[in-house]
Amino acid sequence: MFSLRLLSSLLMLVGIILTVTFSSLLSTRDSIYEVEELFDAQMVQTAKMLEQFYVDQLTEEQLAQLISAPILFHVDDSNIETFADQTNPETLSYEHKLSFQLLSATGALLAYSDSSGKQLLTGFTPGYAIKIIQGDKWHVYSLFSKPNQVWIVTAQRDDVRQELVSLIISNTWRSPLIITPIIMFFMLLLTYYLFKPVKLLERHIDNRAVQDLTPIDIKLPKELISTQYALNSYLLRIADTMIRERRFSADAAHELKTPLAIIKLHSDGLRDVLTGADDAVQQEALPYIQAMSEGVNRISHTVEQLLLLSRVDAIEALNITDCKLQNIMENVINQLLHVIADYEWHIVIPPEMTINADQFYLELVLKNIIENACKYSPLESLIAIKVSEDDQQTMVCVMDQGRGMSDEEINLAKNRFYRVDENASQGAGLGLFICQHIISLHHGELTFNRVEPHGLNVCIVLPHAHTQV
């Protein structure tokens, strides 16, 4: 499952990175070109200034003297290698990385700087050239002054340009690397704010009661109105389907109730008639009558559960009051005297303990759970009922010594129409579903836990009144 918030943030981040990268690459390319052009222009300007202010002032006699004794312009090594090094007006940056030479038309040195030495910089071809001197790469510009028949050569070491380009590239990329995480942080805040309505809708749906199928009525942005409308339409369809299902179940149960009562009445009447017949007739007919009676009882039980389910599904509000647990348990036991007589019982209920619940429906739940404990436990086995509480909730647990349930059966036990044993079970698989529904209306929980070596512990967990949502 992917996150829209994360995906949108990543897409925006990728867009920003691509934009910054593309613009930085263009800036770097243009910067390299401009740096080359700037320094080339500087060398041309220096050569022309040497021609105008020095070469043009030389007489033939001075040129002859320079040929025999070239002038050396000494540059003190300032130990300045990068732009980051400190400079002052007397020791200028990069002075020892610049050079010039003046040569006669025949190639004799007239004047030169010692940064490149006496090795000729030019190939006596006007224009730009690259020269390797003592392992260093030099950019060279040669200018021939025709009136004076003098070659004017200016040169610059390549690392001057490369460092400047490196600084420009570094500054070009440094800012995006700093700004991008900040932008990402604000984008995450923005997406969090923009997705708040979605979280609001999620909380609203999550906090709804199970039976609440009313339309969602909260204020949402325009982009989510269609989603809200679709959800409301879906909820209305579900509610309509459930109403029809409940009506069908109730109607079917009511329609079956009368025929079943008639069949039961005739079955009992037939049994009475057969008591006067001879033994051979009774022995042959009674098994059929017994099977018919058992089938009628089973269907009648299913009809009663369907009617109860229809009634429970239609509950809109419970009559919740503080009920005395001991009185509730006495009522349940009195209703089950014909069932519980064949078992041993251990019941622990504090005399004055109360529980916040609807007494009628809580008795239904306890009756169903105790009936199940008797149904699946061997005769004369011990069944324990224990009640406990803490600051938040009250627990009513019924523990038997029957066959118990597997993890898979526990997970399915509260499903509608699920029966643990399809062949042996006499129920319709609605009892625990009804119990779970009633307990959920109380904002409680119905839990199942295996007991070793065999048995099952079923607990009703109900919150106290001050903790109910």
UniProtKB/TrEMBL annotation:
Domain Histidine kinase: 251-466
Transmembrane segments: 177-195
Compartment list: Membrane
SUPFAM superfamilies the record matches: ATPase domain of HSP90 chaperone/DNA topoisomerase II/histidine kinase, Homodimeric domain of signal transducing histidine kinase
Reactions catalysed according to its record: ATP + protein L-histidine = ADP + protein N-phospho-L-histidine
Signal peptide extent: none
A Pfam match: HisKA
SMART domains, per database record: HATPase_c (SM00387), HisKA (SM00388)
Membrane topology (UniProt): Multi-pass membrane protein
Key word Nucleotide-binding present: yes
Enzyme class: transferase
Assigned keywords, A-Z: ATP-binding, Kinase, Membrane, Nucleotide-binding, Phosphoprotein, Transferase, Transmembrane, Transmembrane helix, Two-component regulatory system
Matches recorded under InterPro entries: HATPase_C_sf, HATPase_dom, His_kinase_dom, HisK_dim/P_dom, HisK_dim/P_sf, Sig_transdc_His_kin-like_C, TCS_sensor_his_kinase
EC number of this enzyme: 2.7.13.3
Alphabetized GO MF terms: ATP binding; phosphorelay sensor kinase activity
One GO cellular component term noted in the UniProt record for this chain: plasma membrane
Keyword Transmembrane among UniProt keywords: yes
Name used for this protein in its record: histidine kinase
Organism: Shewanella psychromarinicola
